Amino acid sequence: MNPFCVLFFAVLRFQVLLYIETVRGSQLEISSLNQNNSNNAERVLKFVAAYRQFNNQNTAPFAYANWREGYRWEPQKTQSDAGRVASSGNKKILGYRKEHERSAVTAPLSAAVIAALGCESGRESIRQAIRHYDYAKINLCEFFLAECAYYALPPLTSHP
What percent of the chain has pLDDT over 90? Predict the structure, then answer.
């Protein structure tokens, strides 16, 4: 993986975790913000369930590592030229694993982070999503979102 990408996602992970701690540690009264977070969290909770689409036994190759072979390159002078080149990928070379991981790993874990920040009712589905993956078999680096979701979950409160 490109060292720049690793650094970028490490910094992003740090920023998300720092934000979580800042929100948790804040003594400010921001009820309208909390209400908005709760509404957004409820809305995205249904997307967390997409984790079930990821099959840990799937051995499809991550052919996207050879992406240069999968695109017909040409000079791109406009945004529409760039869009045409980007959509011209040869799926026989690139495969479908990247798309599958985006929809079944990145999207559900992103939703889990948002839901964990403001939705107490979705705790169990968020935990199930985090536990579902065999992280040794994921090729994209967005799996760090699982850690962010885990730390964003509010602590369990004990009832007397």
Answer: 25
Which of 148, 70, 80 lies closest to 108 in space, CA to CA? 148
Residue by residue, DSSP assigns 64-127 as GGGHHHHS------SHHHHHHHHTT--HHHH-SHHHHHIIIIIHHHHHHHHHHHH-GGGHHHHH
For residue range 13-32, what is the model confidence (pLDDT) as tens digits? Answer: 656 665 555 555 543 333 44
Tell me which H or E stretch contains 129: helix 123-132
Per residue in 31-48, pLDDT (tens digit) is 444 455 557 778 888 889
Task: Report domain extents, the chain.
Answer: 3-60+96-152, 62-94
Mean pLDDT, residues 101-129 taken together? 88
Distance CA 114, CA 44 (A): 7
Which tokens is 55 given?
């099959």
Using alpha carbons, select from 109, 94, 104, 108 the residue that is nearest to residue 151: 109
User: Has residue 92 got a pLDDT over 80?
Assistant: yes
